[in-house]
Amino acid sequence: MISATVAQQLIDKLGKENVIAEKEDLLVLGYDSTPGLHAMPDVVVYPTDSEQVQAVVEIARDNKIPFTPRGSGTGLSGGSIPVNGGIVICLNKLNKILEIDEENLTATCQAGVVTLDLFNAVAEKGLFYPPDPGSQKISTLGGNVMEDAGGLRGLKYGVTRDYVMGLKCVLPDGTLLDTGGKSVKDVAGYAFKDLLIGSEGTLAIITELTVKLIPPPQDKRTFLAYFKNIRTAGEAVSKIIAAKIIPSTMEIMDKATINCVEDYVKIGLPREMAALLLIEVDGHPAVVAEEAAEVEKVLKAVGADDVQMAKDAEHAGELAAARRTALSALARVSPTTLLEDATVPRSMLANTFDLIEKLAEKYKLTVGTFGHAGDGNLHPTVLCDERNEDEMKRAHAFYDELYEQVLEWGGTVSGEHGIGIAKKGYLAKQIGPGGVAVMKRIKRSFDPDGLLNPGKIFADDQE
Amino acid sequence: MISATVAQQLIDKLGKENVIAEKEDLLVLGYDSTPGLHAMPDVVVYPTDSEQVQAVVEIARDNKIPFTPRGSGTGLSGGSIPVNGGIVICLNKLNKILEIDEENLTATCQAGVVTLDLFNAVAEKGLFYPPDPGSQKISTLGGNVMEDAGGLRGLKYGVTRDYVMGLKCVLPDGTLLDTGGKSVKDVAGYAFKDLLIGSEGTLAIITELTVKLIPPPQDKRTFLAYFKNIRTAGEAVSKIIAAKIIPSTMEIMDKATINCVEDYVKIGLPREMAALLLIEVDGHPAVVAEEAAEVEKVLKAVGADDVQMAKDAEHAGELAAARRTALSALARVSPTTLLEDATVPRSMLANTFDLIEKLAEKYKLTVGTFGHAGDGNLHPTVLCDERNEDEMKRAHAFYDELYEQVLEWGGTVSGEHGIGIAKKGYLAKQIGPGGVAVMKRIKRSFDPDGLLNPGKIFADDQE
């Protein structure tokens, strides 16, 4: 509970309509999209500009109240759950696109702008903002930056990090920091911007950002390739890259996912196949034609069981939309969906599919795997029921064994979802105690009192 | 002076041949490529693997001796000058390319590999490592990472940062930290790698790195555009980008630079022109043909006084090589060359040329300007004589006034050369005292005793 004095201070700064303290209203802001996680905030505030964020941080700091930033809550590792209560700073009212600069090819937005809204706004000016996380229709740019969100176009176009040129943010001590901007090169001082990207809301609160835009691809071709053996799909991905073709998209769905998605969207996916790859090549029409032919050649050589070309743009859009429903489609069929985010060097993809299959069998689990195959980034998803203690134990053993091998292959425990609460246990295994020690020193150098988004990233014995 | 005991410890770990303590040998390792800066190291060591670097750091730490890493010393801000003496750790013997992985499109190298050697080695396998700093024939990859080096291809292909996937480094406390790797996405923990890139050797010593490779462009076309008015050249750059063409290269030389370069390389550059742009478009032949036509159209529309196409690849190579000589060519004609690194949003280029001209006149200085116009990154170079006190005063006043305006335009005091010793005074002006305070806390979190590369980046009153 926060005191009436603090509540009044918040209302004085933000206005009554932007301070929520009723229990039933607070309830929904204690979740994000990670199953099984919840914590109650004491109060939720909706600042409408950077200065209001700064004012809230100052009130929190003066009163030693923990504070947790959030956007739309589409995170998948619990990064915006207010584990210690306190103030939740909801940035969704910071939703203005401030400028689209066609001369410098940049856009400047407030942090609460929805990803797809920016995409559409720049598309109207003939420009392209590539990052397209699965949740792009509701996720905010601030959240994308804080998690370094990927998406379906990551393979060719990179992730959120590759487009952030400047950040305005409020530090835990109340400093308003402006870092980077419209200059395409800037090496003055440490790379704050680059450190803050992917810091999961634990070092600063982003209030504004400037992103790079690029000319859009003129043409695109979309394929579906079906495989009776998922290992072959993994080999196909590696072979396409080794043939020096970088498609914009190479997404995979396994049999369980194909079936759940087909139940959900009914577009005629072949239920008997072990895997499908959704592949898109884009760019100049001449390049697209050549690359499409080359991709088809590689797919046939590697032994794809069927290759279909999307009939037209509408059909291609339908296929991409179907892939985007994968998580929701899987989530419909079981009470609990444990989604993971294992990422390996692409050459290890085929082995990773084998491993997932082997471990699912060993631990008697139903696992649906989908993800950004071209990035080596897979989301093996255990369909389970959290009330079944034994099943949950097996699910965790499955992930433990999977990650152990993934790390041995030079992979990572998170390609795009972050550590948050959900994966604290794995971090030290990946970066070692020395790495964790430096991270904690960095955290302290930004946030000596540990008030900003506490309880995240570091396991309890590391805090 | 270091003690005989410490010298012996170093010899025990690295071998006699890798420890240099003779004064005449040390002298040359107290310089980098920044005019007017020198400091004597007490001892220089040449480790041959990561563990030897770690051993040296441990000896330095145990004996509280400052230590400064360096590569080939091509830096232009004094970043590797051992201002407090101590141990210089020269990484040039860490010169092995460890692996070129054609399946994952990565290369793993020791930090002392020369940039062009990597470029050539991967080119042999039909792959492409784009970063090409002016000093690529002698600069090392470790130095490139520490300065986040740019190059002539930065406009389309980005800078060193855009290609670093993994780093192995030794922290000031002796920890060997492995961060990133061959996975194309990795968001587990804070972005160490991204913080270390551009940290100018003040947070860690890089010993190995893994970089991303890409398929090479299949075709290329090279233009020279001449302008009787340099402002028009700036406008041409903005208009080409605004036409949604991203050439691989758009380099500028002003009249003074054209004349010095022509004196030096004698390839028939027109001495009467106020500026030339060297423009390259590359990629698929069909794209190159279209973009070349479009570039030519924009150049004519904006009022270029002459546009010439390179006759063939050899001629194109000659032109790029001529541009690469700009700094040396300018340096030949005056006792002192003060090179700066102002960078502005591209739309401000034309105004920046005007400003440089106006300030050169105001302060009665000879200024040659060249640089990466496409990146908004200019190197206005004052040709002067450090023995002329009044001229030096005017030169500094010139830069002060220039940077004040550049910062007002949203630019930066360094696009690619770093702060080092040379530009300490400007940093706080750009990032503010709040930014400097956080930087210092980060520095302390890595290096509490301040032994790693002391005397850099922070002005004396900030240390």
Q: Which percent range describes the beta-strand content of chain A?
A: 15-25%
Counting copies of identical and different chains, the oligomeric state is homodimer
Query: What CATH architecture label of the largest domain in chain A applies?
Result: 3-Layer(aba) Sandwich
CATH top level assignment of the largest domain in chain A: Alpha Beta
State the end-to-end CA separation of chain A.
24 Å
CATH homologous superfamily of the largest domain in chain A - what is it? FAD-linked oxidases, C-terminal domain
The whole-number mean of residue pLDDT values of chain A reads 95
- The total domain count of chain A is 4
Most extensive interface between two protein chains, with residue counts: A-B, 92 and 91 residues
Secondary structure category of chain A: alpha+beta
Radius of gyration of chain A: 22 Å
Organism (chains A, B): Malonomonas rubra DSM 5091
Pfam family, one (chains A, B): FAD_binding_4
Cofactor (chains A, B): FAD
Family (chains A, B): Belongs to the FAD-binding oxidoreductase/transferase type 4 family.
